[in-house]
Amino acid sequence: MGGRLLNYIIRRVFQSVLVLLVVGLVAFSMFRFVGDPVDNMLGQERTDADIERLRAVLGLDQPFPVQYWKFLQGAIDGNFGVSYRQGRPVSEIIVERLPATLELAMVSGFLAIMVGIILGVYTAIRRDGWGSNVIMTVSLIGVSLPTFLIGILLIYLFSVELDLLPSFGRGEVTHLGWWSTGLLTASGLKAIILPAITLGLYQMTLIMRLVRAEMLEVLRQDYVRFARARGLSERVVNFRHALKNTLVPVITVTGLQLGSIIAFAIITETVFQWPGVGLLFINAIQFVDIPVMAAYLMLISVMFVGINLAVDLLYVAIDPRLRGEAS
Amino acid sequence: MTLLDIQALSVAFPTRRQTFVAVDNADLNVEPGEIHGLVGESGAGKSTIGAAVMGLLERPGRITDGTISLQGDAISGLDRAAMQALRGQRISMIFQDPLTSLNPLFTVREQLTETISTHLDVTDAEANQRAIDLLTRVGIPEPELRIDQYPHQFSGGMRQRVVIALALCSEPEVIIADEPTTALDVSIQAQILDLIKELARERQVGVILITHDMGVIADTTDRVTVMYQGEVVESGPTAQVMGDPKHEYTQSLIAAVPRPTVKMHRFPQVSYGGRETAFAIEDLARNWDKPQVDRAKPLYQIEGLTKRFLKKGSLIPSQRQFMTAVDRVSFDVMQGEVFGIVGESGSGKSTIARMIAGLYRSDGGSIRFDGQETHTLGDDYRRQIQMIFQDPYSSLNPRMRVDQIIAEPAKHHGILAGQALKDRVDELLDRVGLGKEAGLKFAHEFSGGQRQRISIARALATQPRFLICDEPTSALDVSIQAQILNILKDLQEHLNLTMLFISHDLPVVRQMCDRVMVMRNGQLVELQETEALFAKPQQPYTQELLSLMPRLDALKAAPSV
């Protein structure tokens, strides 16, 4: 059993590396279309010779596979190059920004999963109750409103009108080694509420509707009827027997959504001026800051690949039928 | 004192337009140690009675009248908490399908101990010990080892034993068994029924055995209650009701049971209630492009047919493990005959059918149709073979109208188009007794038997020469089964069809087939003329299979047709 699992993980890691290499190759082939960084970096007084020299220094005169190869060589040593715009090492910039994004993503992901599952189960059990109908109707808003609009509405309501919560920034930050956290100060906690809700609302409604649909399906199954017939309590039947059976599809979607929470925090970070990697990426695109873009894309693909691996392992943990023919 | 006493019970399902009365004024009582059979066709209300006793009626169903008493105390009308305390504690239930009634994500130990701890005040260690004892009692070998396995690691029969163990967790006084053996093979069925009989005798449990299978009733029960459309039509000791039925419905129901002992030309139908629908086969035969058949010539010559399924995949070919589903099987199917294949589940009978139909690719051997290798034949060959599947619910696309379903094969093969196609569909619907208006509806608006007629109409749309019927009636009631089997017989006779008939129901096979092949574990055990096989089985396995057929001697002799 253990050997089989280890075997599986090794195979998956191997596949993941392949995926990462392909993502990088595609990314580098696209950078040519973003614009010419040299334009931004040199002032009005530039000569053609300046341009040629800078290109040679940055390695931009070489074909993209060669640029990619050099990027990879650097990446193995943990060296992702120097930002064209800020003139500092990319790894340093990203490490500085990453905690903000990850913290935001985790808080909103946690909110989305907890609230989504609880509401999903509730609306499935009381499928005709007025409470469920209200929740289902309100959830339509969460699915259909675009993120930036929700963010602006929340800012208007809670920051401008009620003046309860800050409308931008991370609040006061505590440093724990290289990691910076806003979760330990009152102003940091207040600052994360609105962005987390904005970022997680869509995922929450999605998870809720998915859990509800799966629950309705599972509650019709014979093993749920048989669990009732054995005299088990409603709570055990609903939350132990039924909920666990809804989890496999829910985990698939939730895993992918968690990836996109991190990757697409860009919009929320822009609306709330949240100092995370998303905002960094937007700025990098505007300036054609190739080293930052490349490192960011690789980082996001590592996260997606990692989350997917975790999802696959969770499947096996939840569903014994996927563990192969034992016995 | 009577253990379970149901008096004048009525159950209704009120809907917006009308109230559907599922059970009407039904009486039933069970004594300790008694197995009481509850028999009837689907929709007769027998499962509803079981659900009412358990307090598990699906919404919006409710008990409108009558009382249910356990040991003299009324249990109908108890509130939810009191009912929940009763369920599993004093009344238990066994469901039909052991594959779906156990939660796939929990081990057997978890499901057993959870139930035991709910009902009995015991420590974890005691609950564990009791769980192992229960598994031992229901005949599961190596219970200490198997208790930590998941349901999917048990075979169907073993799973039903686990279900029974779960039902026994707290020494119930009454067990309601709802079609407990319908999903099982005949040999497993016999074992499970024996187990239920033993338990009833030894623990003085009262059992309500709900089934549509007259053979099970005759073999197992002490008393029987017959239901028809929500009403009890007859009740009494099994031998008396089976041997000398008083009510007209019981009589026709018993007459419709296929007998293993005699071969009849047509299946007697349940005539009660005037539900027999005519099937106008002669009209269909008139404008049918009938193939010439020569019964001495084979239509199919099958040699050394083999199919392996991958059990464990690997990049390295030598590391792969296979399961041989069909192992070098050779036989001929003669033109115009009905060729039967019998065997337990997993014997490879459906796999053979699928290879013939081209749904599976074989891993060895050859299938020749009219002397030619089938894989060299193109679309026209596929037109000439059609299939009728076991489950009339999942084999029809729920999103398509019935006329589209029937037209699809003919359209696909480009045989007919436009008005001619529409006429063909209308004609087929008329001929299978549904009427052309049925084409505008969707499959879910029909009953199981009607759906199987739609499947037949679909199979006939391309004017095939060869029909594969894979357990075509095992999901149907006796009366509907008789209608469908008669249709198939007529088709074969009037349209010169050749037929491959797969079934695990030996009496049905005896009535339907000219020759029968017995299979086990992918291998051919015996191939004989039907009468010879039933009269003088040569192989020990065939003899064993035949000996397990429910003895229907107790049933009133069928009227000769």
UniProtKB/TrEMBL annotation, chain A:
Segments traversing the membrane: 12-34, 104-122, 134-158, 178-202, 247-274, 294-318
CDD domains on file: TM_PBP2
A biological-process GO annotation: transmembrane transport
Domain (ABC transmembrane type-1): residue spans on this chain: 98-315
Localisation: Cell membrane
Tree of life domain: Bacteria
Keywords assigned: Cell membrane, Membrane, Transmembrane, Transmembrane helix, Transport
Its membrane topology: Multi-pass membrane protein
Annotated InterPro entries: BPD_transp_1_N, MetI-like, MetI-like_sf
GO cellular component, one term: plasma membrane
Protein family membership: Belongs to the binding-protein-dependent transport system permease family.
Record's protein name: Dipeptide transport system permease protein DppB
Species annotation: Candidatus Rhodobacter oscarellae
TrEMBL record, chain B:
Xref: PROSITE patterns: ABC_TRANSPORTER_1, ABC_TRANSPORTER_2
Domain of life of the native organism: Bacteria
Membrane-topology annotation of the record: Peripheral membrane protein
Entry-linked CDD domains: ABC_NikE_OppD_transporters (cd03257)
GO MF: ATP binding; ATP hydrolysis activity
GO BP annotations listed: peptide transport; transmembrane transport
Main location: membrane
Pfam families cross-referenced by the UniProt entry: ABC_tran, oligo_HPY
Family: Belongs to the ABC transporter superfamily.
Record bears the keyword Zinc: no
Gene Ontology terms: cellular component: plasma membrane
Taxonomic source organism: Candidatus Rhodobacter oscarellae
Domain (ABC transporter) ranges: 6-254, 310-546
Annotated localization: Cell inner membrane
Entries under InterPro entries matching the protein: AAA+_ATPase, ABC_transp_ATP-bind, ABC_transporter-like_ATP-bd, ABC_transporter-like_CS, Oligopep_ABC_C, P-loop_NTPase
Protein's recorded name: Dipeptide transport ATP-binding protein DppD
